[in-house]
Specification:
The complex is a heterotrimer of chains A (564), B (269) and C (435). With 564 residues, chain A is mainly α. Among the domains of chain A are: 1-59 and 319-337, no CATH class; 184-283, no CATH class; 341-431, no CATH class; 440-561, Fumarate Reductase Iron-sulfur Protein, Chain B, domain 2 (Orthogonal Bundle), CATH 1.10.1060. Chain A has helices spanning 3-30, 42-57, 61-74, 77-82, 84-105, 111-114, 125-149, 160-185, 187-197, 207-216, 230-243, 251-254, 258-265, 269-274, 277-295, 303-317, 324-337, 343-347, 351-357, 364-376, 388-397, 403-407, 414-429, 433-436, 442-452, 477-481, 483-487, 499-507, 511-515, 518-522, 528-532, 539-561. In chain A, helix 2 (42-57) packs across helix 17 (324-337). Chain B has two domains: 2-118, Up-down Bundle (Glutathione S-transferase Yfyf (Class Pi), Chain A, domain 2), CATH 1.20.1050; 128-262, Rossmann fold, CATH 3.40.50. Chain B has helices at 10-14, 16-28, 50-66, 76-91, 93-104, 119-135, 157-160, 170-177, 201-217, 228-240, 251-258, and strands spanning 2-5, 32-34, 70-73, 116-118, 144-147, 181-182, 222-225, 248-250. In chain B, the strands form two sheets. Chain B has a four-stranded parallel beta sheet, sandwiched between helices. In chain B, strands 6-5-7-8 form a four-stranded parallel beta sheet, sandwiched between helices. Chain C has 435 residues and is an alpha/beta fold. Chain C folds into two domains: 2-103 and 265-426, FAD/NAD(P)-binding domain; 122-253, Rossmann fold (3-Layer(aba) Sandwich). Chain C has helices at 2-6, 18-29, 67-77, 88-104, 134-145, 162-169, 194-200, 204-214, 235-246, 260-275, 400-403, 406-426; strands spanning 8-14, 34-37, 117-120, 126-129, 149-154, 176-181, 223-227, 250-253, 279-281, 285-291, 295-300, 306-315, 325-328, 331-334, 388-390. In chain C, helix 8 (204-214) packs parallel to helix 9 (235-246). The chains are: A mainly alpha (564), B alpha/beta (269), C alpha/beta (435). Chains in contact: A-B, A-C, B-C. The interface between A and C is medium-sized, with 19 and 22 residues.
C-alpha cells in the first residue's frame, strides 16, 4: 500500500468524519426542547451558535470561557469534584490518547516540524509513545472497573456503534503495541533498514551489527543463539552508534510495554516475519484508526466534541444568561454531551423518593433521555405504554434543587432542561389531578368512578378509620377558617365542597365524591382547619390522604376516557 | 450549640441569600453548623405516596442521628414535613418497621431521638433573645416590619410545637430584638398562597394579594419571612404586579443588618 | 421546655373553656405563676354574650332583670348550687376583670351594671344576658327603645335572615325593616361564610365598598343591625368605622355557632392569657396525675414526655362535650381523676320523659360536689386533695343552659377558687401545702 493511498484513505475518513460531525452538530441546532424553543427558527439557532461564539470572545464572557477552557475542559475540574478516581482514569485516557494522536499519529505533521530530528524509534518518542499508550490502557481499565462496581443500572443501553467503536479503540491500542513489538523482534525489518541505511543485506557482513541488535534491541535472529562473541558485539555496537543510534533508542528501557511483548513473541518472530505480520498489523492499526474516525460521529464518543462545547457554553453562561436560541442549542446538545456517568443521580435530592416509589424516571439520567426522546419523537410517549405516568411523575417531582446541574462534569444545564421539558413529559402522564380535576364536577367524577366498578374504600390510615371523623358535628369551624373557601376556588366563587362537607361525605362512605371535588386539590395545606377543629379531627391530613387515593383512582379513570 | 443544617431543595438553587444570611448570622451568634449529605425532605410526595415521603424524611433523620446531631432548618415547609414524618413514624409501628428495613439496606438506622428545629425557635430559645440583643450593634430603629408567620411551622401546633398557634409572639419578639418595630396585622397567620400555586394560580394570587394589602394597610414598610417558599411567593407575586412592591426580607437578613454584618454576606446588594 | 420540667407552678389549670380561661386570667392577675393545659374548642361555639344568671327557678321559667337578685334567690333556694358559693363582690370583680382582659385583647364589652340586657338573636327572639360585646350594645338599646331600625343581611350568608327576624318581631316593632345587600366580590357566589366576611371587612378598602352599598338603603333608620361579621381580630375598629361611615349607631346580631364572636372570643382569650404570662400548653392531654406534696401531672403528646409540678390544680374540664365527664352504662364518671360524681341513682332517672320538660333533666345537674371553697369531694365527703379545685360546668347542682348562667358559673366559681388558692398559697401553713 502506497503512502498516497494511505493519505487518500486518511482524507476520505476525515472527510466522512467531518460530514458525520456536521450532521450531528446540525441536530444541536434543530432539536427543539421546551415551549420557548418552538418558535425559534433554524437560522436564529445557527446565528446564536456561530455569531454568539464570536460575540462571546469579544465580550466579558471571555473570562468565563477561558476559565471553563482551562479548568473544566483541560483540567476537568468538575469531574474531579465528582469523583477523583474517575477523574484520574478519564484524564489518563484523554491525555494519553490526545498525546498519542498529536505526537505519534500526526508525528510527521506536528512533531517533526517542532523537532526536526524526530524519529519514532528514538527516545523520548519511543518512551512517550509507550507511556501514552499505557496511560490509555490504564485509564480504560480504571473506567471499566469503575462501571463494574457501580450498582445502578444504566438507562441508556449501549448501541452497536458504541461497542464497535470501543472495539476499534482496543484494536488500535493492541495493534499498536503488537506492531511495535513485532517490529522490534522482526529480522525482516532489520534487513529492510540495513538495506536502506547501510546498503547491505548479507547476514555475514552484518553479523556484528546483528549481534548488537540481537542483544540490545531484541531482534530475534533465529541463527544467533547463545552468548555473542564480545569483540564482534563491540564492533557491532560501534557500527550501530555510527549508523543507527541517531534514530534508534534501545527499547528495553523505553518500550516498557512493547518490549516485553516482543520478548514473548521472539520464539515466533520468524513465522511472523514469514507472513509479514508487521505490515498487516500496520494496516490493521491504520484501518482501525480510519474506521474509528468515520464511526466517531455516530457513536457516544461524539462527546469528545460535545463535551468541550458544553463546558464552554457553561462557562459563557456563567457570565450572563444565554439568548433563548443559545439556550435551545445548549439543550439540544445535552444528549450528545452526556456520557452516562450518573454523577447527577448520585447527587439527586429525590433519589430516595425514586427508590421508594420504584420509579427511576425521577433520576436525572433517565429524565435527560426522556426529555430528548419526547422532543425528537412526538410518538415516543405514546409508545411508552403504561410508563407515561411514571415518566410524568419523574418530571413533576423534581424539586429543581440544582444539585445535578452543579455536579454534571460536562456542564449540561440540567435544571434548564427539566424546566423546559417538564410540560412535554407531564403531558401524557397527567400526574396531578390538581391540574385537570376541574374538567368535570365532583358528581361527574363520582359517576365515572362508579362506572368503573366497586367503590374504593379510603386507603390512608386516618381516612380509613371511622374514629377519625366520627366526632364531626358539622360545626363548620373548618370551613370558616379555610382560606380556599374564603378566596373561592378557581374563579371568585365557591369551592364545590367545603371542608366540613368533605368530612361528612367520608362519614357517609361517599369517598369517590370527595376525591373528585376541587376542594381536595385546591387545599393549601395551611392546617387552619386541623388547628381549630373543636373535636381534634385531622382535617388536612385527611385531605392529603384523599389526594393520594385520588392520584390512583382519578388518573386511571381519566386515561380510559381519553379519546386519543 | 451545634446542629446539622438542613437546607432542603429550594434554598440553594432559588433563594441562596437565605443560606448565606443564615450561616452568617448563626456563626456570629456562636452556633456551629454541620453539613451532611441530606436529601429532599419528601414534601413533593407528601400527598402522592405516604411511604415514599416518610422514607425520604426518615433518611435525613437517620443521617443526623448517625452524626449525633439535631436538625436545624431555615425552611418552614421542610420543618413541618420532617416533624410530620416523625409523627407518622411514632403512630404507625408497621410503617416504622418498613422504613427502618429500607434504611438498613443503605446501612442507616432510624434514630432514637433527633430533634427537628426551625431557625426562629433556635434563635429565640436556644440562642436566646437576650444573647441576640447583646450582640446587636446597629438596631433597625423605626423600621416597621410585618412578621409573616405562614403556616407549616405554626400549624398543626401539636406536631410543630413552634409557638401558640392563635397568639404566637416568637417572630415579633425576634423582630423587636433587632430594634425594628413589629406591626399588628390581622392576616399575619394566613397562608402566603405558595402551596396552591401550581394547582390554582389565581387562587394563590388572591391569597398573596390579601396578605400584601393587609401588611401595607397596617403600616408595614417591610415584610419579613422565614421560609424560602414564602419569600419566593411574595417576591415573585409583586414582581409580576404593577404597584410599588413592599420589600420582602428574610429574617436573618434583618437580624444580620442589626448585628452589623456586611450586606454582601447576607445576600443583600 | 426545661422551664416546665424543673419549676413548680403555683397553679395548673386543666381545661381551656370559659372557666379554665377565667381561672388562668385571675391567677395571673394575682401574680401567681400559672400553667394552663388543654385545648380550646367549646369556646368557638360561644355567642359572644356572657350570661351571668337569668332564669330561676327553671321549672317556672322566671326571667330576672337583676341577676344579683336572682343570685340571692339561688342562695336561699339552692344552697348547694355552685353559684350560691359565689358572693356578689366576687362575681362583679370576675366579670369586670374578664371583660377588661377581653377589651385589651381586642374584644371590648359594654359597661356592666346591675341589670341583665335583652339581646335580639338571629331568630328574632330576645335573649337575656349580662355581658354584651360593645359591637352588639346598640342592639340592646334598640330592642328596648324600638326606634326606626334597618336590619341588613347578605345574600349568600345562609345562616342569617333579616327577613326572618322582621317576621318574628316586626309586629311589636313598627319601625323595623330589612334590606338585602350584595357582599362585594361575592357576586358569583351562592354561599358565604361569616368568618371570611369578617376578615374581609378588616380591609379599609373593602369596608368602603360595603358601606357604599348600605348607605342608599338607610332611609330614616336611626340604628342599623348587621349579622355578626364586623371584623375578626379588629372588631372594634371595624365597628367604629361602620358607625362613622353610616352616621348612626350600628349593632351586631349574634349568629349561630360557629359564629364570628365565638372565634373572636377564643382568639382573644388565648391572646389574653399569653399576654398575662400564663404558660399555655395546647394539644396535650394529661395522661396521669399524682398528688403528694405537690401535684404532678404527666402530659401526653409532648415529645419525650413531660411532667408538670404544681402546688394547686384547677380542674376546669367541662362536661360531656368537653370530656370532663363521661356517661357510660354504669353511670357518669369524671374522666381525669376519677372523682366521685354526684348523679341520679340510676340511669332511668337521668332524663324526664318529656324532652322539653321545663324543669330540665336530672342528668344535667350531675357533676362534682365541692366544699365552699370549690374543692371537689372524695367518697368520704372531704376535699380530695387540699390543693385541688374544680370550677365551671363540671360542678354539680347547676343547669347552666336553662338557668342562662354559663359565664356566671364559669367566671364566678373560677374567681372564688383562685381567691382561695391565693389565700392558701400565702398561708405559711394550714390547710394547703404551700411550697
Amino acid at each position: 500500500m502506497s503512502a498516497s493511498f494511505l493519505r487518500m484513505a486518511f482524507l476520505v475518513s476525515l472527510g466522512l468524519c467531518a460530514l458525520g460531525l456536521l450532521w450531528r452538530v446540525s441536530a444541536w441546532l434543530r432539536v427543539r426542547i421546551g415551549s420557548d424553543a418552538r418558535d425559534i427558527r433554524f437560522h436564529q439557532r445557527l446565528f446564536a451558535a456561530v455569531g454568539g461564539t464570536f460575540a462571546a470572545l469579544f465580550s466579558r464572557r471571555i473570562f468565563g470561557l477561558v476559565k471553563a477552557k482551562v479548568l473544566d475542559v483541560l483540567l476537568q475540574r468538575r469531574l474531579f469534584n465528582g469523583c477523583w478516581l474517575r477523574w484520574l482514569g478519564h484524564l489518563l485516557i484523554v491525555y494519553g490518547f490526545l498525546l498519542l494522536l498529536v505526537m505519534h499519529a500526526l508525528g510527521r505533521l506536528v512533531t517533526a516540524k517542532l523537532y526536526p530530528d524526530y524519529a519514532s524509534t528514538h527516545d523520548p518518542w519511543l518512551l512517550l509513545r509507550n507511556v501514552f499508550g499505557a496511560a490509555v490502557v490504564l485509564g480504560i481499565v480504571m473506567v471499566a472497573a469503575g462501571r463494574r462496581f457501580r450498582p445502578t443500572s444504566t438507562p441508556r443501553p449501549r448501541r452497536l456503534g458504541d461497542k464497535v467503536f470501543a472495539a476499534l479503540l482496543a484494536v488500535v491500542l493492541v495493534s499498536g503495541f503488537l506492531l511495535e513489538a513485532t517490529k522490534v523482534a522482526s529480522p525482516k525489518a532489520f534487513y529492510r533498514m540495513a538495506n536502506e541505511y547501510i546498503g547491505s543485506t548479507d547476514p555475514e557482513e552484518l553479523l556484528p551489527l546483528r549481534l548488537a541488535w540481537a542483544t540490545d534491541f531484541g531482534v530475534a535472529f533465529p541463527d544467533l543463539q547463545g552468548t555473542p562473541d564480545p569483540d564482534k558485539l563491540a564492533e557491532g555496537r560501534e557500527l550501530h552508534h555510527d549508523a543507527c543510534a541517531s534514530c534508534h533508542s534501545p527499547p528495553g528501557s523505553s518500550a516498557f510495554v512493547s518490549y516485553p511483548i516482543s520478548r514473548a513473541l521472539a520464539p515466533i518472530a520468524e513465522p511472523l516475519d514469514g507472513v509479514d505480520a508487521d505490515t498487516w498489523l500496520l494496516y490493521l492499526h491504520l484501518a482501525a484508526c480510519f474506521l474509528g474516525l468515520i464511526l466517531l460521529p455516530f457513536t457516544r464518543f461524539i462527546h469528545v466534541l460535545a463535551d468541550p462545547v458544553s463546558l464552554l457554553a457553561n462557562g459563557a453562561a456563567s457570565s450572563g444568561p444565554l439568548s433563548p436560541a443559545g439556550r435551545a442549542n445548549r439543550r439540544a446538545l445535552a444528549i450528545d454531551a452526556c456520557v452516562d456517568c450518573r454523577l447527577c443521580d448520585d447527587r439527586c435530592s429525590v433519589a430516595p423518593i425514586a427508590r421508594s416509589l420504584g420509579n427511576p424516571a425521577l433520576l436525572p439520567s433517565h429524565k435527560l433521555l426522556a426529555t430528548h426522546a419526547v422532543a425528537t419523537n412526538p410518538r415516543w410517549l405514546d409508545r411508552q405504554a403504561g410508563h407515561a405516568r411514571r415518566i410524568a411523575e419523574g418530571a413533576v417531582l423534581c424539586t429543581t434543587c440544582g444539585r445535578c446541574t452543579d455536579r454534571c462534569p460536562v456542564g449540561i444545564d440540567l435544571a434548564d432542561l427539566w424546566v423546559a421539558g417538564r410540560a412535554d413529559l407531564a403531558r401524557a402522564g397527567q400526574p396531578s389531578p390538581a391540574q385537570w380535576v376541574r374538567e368535570r364536577s365532583a358528581l361527574d367524577w363520582d359517576e365515572a368512578l362508579a362506572a368503573r366498578g366497586a367503590v374504593q374504600d379510603p386507603i390512608g390510615p386516618l381516612s380509613s378509620n371511622r374514629e377519625t371523623y366520627s366526632a364531626c358535628v358539622q360545626c363548620q369551624t373548618c370551613t370558616n377558617v379555610c382560606p380556599v373557601v374564603a378566596h373561592g376556588g378557581e374563579e371568585p366563587g365557591p369551592v364545590d365542597l367545603t371542608p366540613q362537607k368533605v368530612m361528612n361525605l367520608l362519614r357517609l362512605g361517599m369517598v369517590d365524591l370527595a376525591i373528585g371535588s376541587s376542594m381536595v386539590w385546591d387545599c393549601a395545606t395551611c392546617y387552619q382547619c386541623q388547628e381549630h377543629c373543636p373535636e381534634g379531627i385531622r382535617v388536612t391530613d385527611v385531605m392529603l390522604e384523599l389526594r393520594e387515593l385520588g392520584y390512583r383512582r382519578l388518573g386511571d379513570t381519566r386515561e380510559r376516557r381519553q379519546p386519543e | 450549640m451545634k446542629f446539622a443544617l438542613f437546607l432542603g431543595c429550594k434554598i440553594p438553587a432559588s433563594v441562596p441569600a437565605y443560606e448565606l444570611s443564615t450561616r452568617a448570622v448563626l456563626a456570629r451568634l456562636g452556633v456551629t453548623l454541620v453539613d451532611l449529605p441530606f436529601n429532599c425532605c419528601g414534601y413533593p410526595v407528601r400527598s402522592l405516596d405516604r411511604e415514599a415521603f416518610v422514607f425520604a424524611a426518615a433518611r435525613n433523620l437517620a443521617l443526623a442521628g448517625a452524626a449525633g446531631l439535631d436538625v436545624l432548618t431555615p425552611c418552614k415547609c421542610c420543618f413541618g414535613n420532617l416533624r410530620h414524618a416523625q409523627r407518622f413514624l411514632d403512630e404507625d409501628p408497621a410503617l416504622r418497621q418498613r422504613v427502618g428495613a429500607a434504611l438498613a439496606e443503605e446501612g442507616l438506622a432510624l434514630p432514637a431521638g433527633v430533634a427537628v428545629e426551625h431557625l426562629l425557635p433556635v434563635l429565640a430559645r436556644t440562642v436566646g433573645l437576650d444573647a441576640i440583643a447583646a450582640a446587636v450593634t446597629a438596631p433597625r430603629t423605626g423600621l416597621r416590619v410585618a412578621a409573616h408567620y405562614g403556616c407549616h411551622a405554626l400549624r398543626p401546633s401539636d406536631v410543630t410545637r413552634f409557638d401558640h398557634p392563635l397568639a404566637p409572639t416568637i417572630f415579633e419578639d425576634l423582630v423587636r430584638v433587632t430594634g425594628a418595630t413589629p406591626v399588628e396585622w390581622p392576616r399575619r397567620l394566613d397562608c402566603c398562597g405558595e402551596p396552591v400555586h401550581d394547582a390554582n394560580p389565581s387562587l394563590s394570587d388572591r391569597l398573596t394579594q390579601a396578605k400584601v394589602d393587609d401588611a401595607r394597610e397596617s403600616g408595614a414598610e417591610v415584610l419579613a419571612t422565614a421560609c424560602p417558599y414564602c419569600q419566593m411567593r411574595f417576591t415573585e407575586f409583586q414582581a409580576a404586579g404593577s404597584a410599588a412592591p413592599l420589600p420582602v426580607l428574610l429574617y436573618p437578613q434583618l437580624l444580620g443588618q442589626a448585628l452589623g454584618l456586611a450586606p454582601r454576606t447576607l445576600g443583600l446588594s | 421546655m426545661t422551664q416546665t420540667q424543673t419549676k413548680t407552678w403555683d397553679v395548673a389549670v386543666v381545661g381551656a373553656g370559659m372557666a379554665g380561661m377565667a381561672a388562668s386570667l385571675f391567677a395571673a392577675e394575682r401574680g401567681l405563676s400559672c400553667i394552663q393545659i388543654g385545648n380550646g374548642g367549646g369556646l368557638l361555639f360561644a355567642s359572644g354574650l356572657l350570661d351571668l344568671l337569668a332564669v330561676h327557678p327553671v321549672a317556672a321559667r322566671r326571667v330576672w332583670d337583676n341577676p344579683f337578685e336572682a343570685l340571692a334567690m339561688i342562695r336561699r333556694d339552692q344552697p348547694d348550687h355552685p353559684l350560691a358559693r359565689v358572693d356578689d363582690a366576687s362575681m362583679r370583680a370576675a366579670f369586670q376583670s374578664f371583660t377588661s382582659a377581653l377589651g385589651d385583647a381586642g374584644m371590648p364589652f359594654a359597661p356592666l351594671g346591675d341589670r341583665n340586657a335583652s339581646v335580639l338573636t338571629s331568630l328574632g327572639t330576645p335573649k337575656p344576658t349580662y355581658g354584651v360585646p360593645r359591637t352588639m350594645a346598640a342592639g340592646v338599646d334598640a330592642l328596648a327603645g324600638r326606634p326606626p331600625c334597618l336590619l341588613l343581611d347578605f345574600r349568600g350568608l345562609r345562616e342569617f335572615s333579616a327577613r326572618q327576624i322582621v317576621a318574628t318581631i316586626g309586629d311589636t316593632w313598627p319601625g323595623l325593616r330589612m334590606a338585602r345587600v350584595e357582599f362585594p366580590g361575592a357576586e358569583a357566589t351562592s354561599e358565604l361564610y361569616a368568618a371570611h366576611m369578617a376578615v374581609a371587612l378588616e380591609s379599609g378598602e373593602f369596608r368602603e365598598r360595603t358601606l357604599a352599598r348600605v348607605r342608599p338603603l338607610l332611609g330614616d333608620a336611626r340604628v342599623v343591625g348587621f349579622p355578626a361579621v364586623l371584623g375578626l381580630a379588629r372588631s372594634a375598629v371595624v365597628h367604629a368605622a361602620f358607625e362613622e361611615g353610616l352616621g348612626v349607631p350600628v349593632f351586631e346580631i349574634p349568629t349561630m355557632p360557629t359564629s364570628v364572636p365565638g372565634l373572636r372570643l377564643n382568639a382573644a382569650l388565648e391572646q389574653a392569657v399569653v399576654t398575662r404570662g400564663v404558660h399555655r400548653m395546647l394539644r396535650v392531654d394529661v395522661a396521669s396525675t399524682s398528688f403528694d406534696e405537690t401535684a404532678v401531672l404527666t402530659l401526653d403528646g409532648v415529645p419525650g414526655g413531660q411532667r408538670v409540678s404544681a402546688r394547686t390544680v384547677v380542674l376546669a374540664t367541662g362536661r360531656f362535650s368537653g370530656r370532663g365527664l363521661s356517661a357510660g352504662q354504669q353511670g357518669v364518671t369524671e374522666t381525669l381523676l376519677g372523682l366521685p360524681v354526684q348523679q341520679p341513682a340510676s340511669r332511668d332517672a337521668w332524663h324526664s320523659r318529656d324532652f322539653l320538660d321545663p324543669a330540665g333533666h336530672a342528668i344535667n345537674r350531675a357533676g362534682l360536689a365541692t366544699d365552699d371553697d370549690f374543692r371537689p369531694l372524695d367518697a368520704t365527703g372531704r376535699p380530695a386533695w387540699p390543693g385541688l379545685y374544680a370550677v365551671g360546668s363540671i360542678l354539680a347542682g347547676q343547669d347552666w343552659m336553662r338557668e342562662k348562667c354559663g359565664s356566671g358559673l364559669a367566671l364566678g366559681t373560677a374567681r372564688v377558687a383562685v381567691d382561695r388558692i391565693a389565700r392558701q398559697l400565702r398561708a405559711p401553713s394550714g390547710v394547703g401545702e404551700a411550697g
